[in-house]
Amino acid sequence: MLHRSITVAGVEVFPLCDAVGAMGESIRRPMAQMFPGGCHGGSDEWILHFHCYLLRDAAGRTVLVDTGIGPRDSLAAGWAPVPGSLGAGLARVGTAPEEVDAVVITHLHSDHASGAVVAGASVFANARHLLQRAEIDAAGEEVLDRVVRPLGDRVQAVAGGAEVLPGIRVLLTPGHTPGHQVVQLGDLVLTGDVVLHPVQLEDPRVPYLYDADPELATLTRVELLDKVRAAGGMIGTAHFAEPFTRIA
Ligand SMILES: [Zn+2]
Ligand SMILES: [Zn+2]
Question: How far apart are CA 142 and CA 144, in angstroms?
Answer without folding.
Answer: 5
